[in-house]
Write a structure and sequence with these properties.
Blueprint (H helix, E strand, L loop, with lengths): L1 E6 L5 E5 L4 H9 L7 E7 L3 H13 L2 E6 L8 E6 L7 E2 L1 H4 L9 H8 L1 E5 L12 H9 L3 E5 L2 E5 L8 E3 L5 H12 L4 E5 L5 H12 L3 E3 L5 E5 L7 E4 L4 H13 L3 E5 L7 H9 L2 E6 L2 E6 L8 E3 L11 H8 L5 E5 L9 H7 L3 E5 L2 E5 L8 E3 L3 H13 L3 E5 L2 H4 L5 H6 L4 E6 L1
Parallel strand pairs: 2-15, 3-14, 6-7, 10-11, 18-19, 22-23
Antiparallel strand pairs: 1-23, 1-24, 3-5, 4-5, 7-9, 8-9, 11-13, 12-13, 15-17, 16-17, 19-21, 20-21
Helix pairs in contact: 1-2, 1-7, 4-6, 5-6, 6-7, 8-10, 8-12, 10-12
The structure holds uridine-diphosphate-N-acetylglucosamine.
Length: about 425
């Protein structure tokens, strides 16, 4: 199994192109199930999670034509998805267990075929992550749902009906599933307290281009008027705000200066504020972000993860890596997932001083991190270890690199092009 070796201490300088967003691309791909037309998605990142969903969609009967474009580092790919008919409404355990986002096929299958059988995704490293919000919301649209032998059996004889859904807590995936389902329901659906993440807006833009009638995506209330059929569309996937934030952390932790191209600063307000509060300068200009450190030291700060527009949980681990080098004590309060501190013991093996008190981490900055062999546990945790390795004295090896391949396109190439001493090594 491959590992990533980082020799720390290089100041990063240069330009990095930000890829399309994984978390936008996945629901957009699932939207192909809603139409017999052709959905063409450009700026899709080349990632393991994208390939996993492509396999699942393939067995539902979606033909996928993949066109590579551009050079290795800033290419992206175009996916042409076409499902004139649905071959199977069952999403089997073997494919769903690999990635929780597979559950996003449930709403579209139910809407188009009036039935679906989708394996429960099961637990995952960062928490129990149930799908109850998805199921309750689909029931509000008239679905009859039963759980049998690890599968969600859903049916809506005669089709889904518009309904009112009030989410008790904000869920990105449930909002996406239900918004997609409601596009083909009979009548009006009202989604209250939906997730407001930019990826929801990106999905709504695409669905509207397919003929859906959606208002309010990105706000506290989404209204969907169902239509009998959707058509194909062309859509460019939004920039990955989490990837951009990760490279901002790479610039900051190495005292470097990076220009990030292909970004959208409007989707990154809380992240940019957090970097600025640590003494990192962020200049925005037409899809480009220039990041550099204003002073020698990173200032400590206090962060609480929240649904958008708050600070994203998907940036928590990377920001913690940065704060391990700050000139004082910081806190990070994780409110979204109950077990998302698995990077803490690994960072401590690199000399970080972190104390956990329930859902809060107290991080006391240290003078110098030290390289160590460490183990990746989930996607964002893994990249936080790479970031720490960039700043550490000596060599860090990160094992279980497949976690990184789920969410970072050309991570090693992008960092080494800016001066990082980083490579993939066989075991
Ligand atoms: C999405 C993102 C993930 C991000 C998360 C929070 C994708 C593919 N993944 O995941 O990277 O970390 O949003 O921003 O976009 N919950 C329930 N019941 C449910 C659904 C969720 O209790 O039916 C809970 C979860 O356990 C979690 C919280 O709600 O504690 C938020 O989860 P949710 O927003 O649904 O995350 P995902 O859509 O899975």
């Amino acid at each position: 199994m491959e590992r990533i070796r980082v020799r720390g201490g290089q100041r990063l300088e240069g330009s990095i192109h930000i890829s399309g967003a994984k978390n936008a691309a996945l629901p957009l791909m699932a939207a192909s199930l809603l139409t017999p037309g052709t959905l063409t998605l450009s700026n899709v990142p080349k990632l393991a999670d994208i390939a996993t969903l492509a396999s699942l969609l393939g067995q539902h009967g979606v033909a996928i034509d993949l066109r590579q474009n551009g050079n290795v580092v800033d290419g992206g790919q175009t996916l042409v998805l076409h499902a004139p008919s649905i071959a199977s409404t069952t999403a089997p355990y073997d494919l769903v267990r690999k990635m929780r986002a597979s559950v996003l096929v449930l709403g579209p299958l139910l809407a188009r075929c009036h039935q679906a059988k989708v394996s429960l995704p099961g637990g995952c490293a960062i928490g129990t992550r149930p799908v109850d919000l998805h199921l309750k919301a689909l029931e509000q649209l008239g679905a009859r749902i039963e759980l049998e032998e690890g599968y969600v059996n859903a049916e809506a004889p005669g089709g889904l009906k518009g309904g009112r859904v009030r989410f008790p807590t904000v869920s990105v995936g449930a909002t996406e599933n239900v918004m997609m389902a409601a596009t083909l329901a009979d009548g009006e659906s009202i989604l209250e307290n939906p997730a407001r993440e930019p990826e929801i807006e990106d999905l709504a833009r695409c669905l509207i281009a397919m003929g859906a009638q959606i208002e309010g995506a990105g706000s506290e209330r989404i209204v969907v008027q169902g239509v009998p059929e959707l058509s194909g569309a062309d859509h460019r996937v939004m920039a990955d705000r989490i990837e951009a934030g990760t490279y901002m952390a790479a610039a900051a932790i190495t005292g470097g200066a990076l220009t990030l191209t292909g970004t959208n600063a409007d989707t990154m307000g809380a992240v940019i504020d957090a970097f600025e509060s640590c003494g990192v300068s962020v200049a925005r200009c037409n899809g480009t972000l220039d990041i550099s450190r204003r002073s020698d030291a990173i200032s400590p700060t206090d962060i609480t993860t929240q649904p958008y527009p708050g600070f994203p949980t998907d940036m928590q681990a990377q920001f913690m890596a940065l704060l391990t080098t700050a000139s004082g004590a910081s806190t990070i309060n994780e409110t979204i997932f109950e077990n998302r501190f698995m990077h803490v013991p690994e960072l401590m093996r690199m000399g970080a001083d972190i104390a956990l008190q329930g859902s809060t981490a107290v991080i006391r900055g240290v003078q110098q991190l030290r390289g160590a062999p460490v183990m990746a546990t989930d996607l964002r945790a893994s990249v936080s270890l790479v970031l720490a390795g960039l700043a550490a004295e000596g060599e860090t090896t990160v094992s279980r690199v497949y976690h990184l391949d789920r969410g970072y396109e050309h991570l090693v190439e992008k960092l080494s092009a800016c001066g990082a001493d980083i490579e993939r090594i066989a075991n």
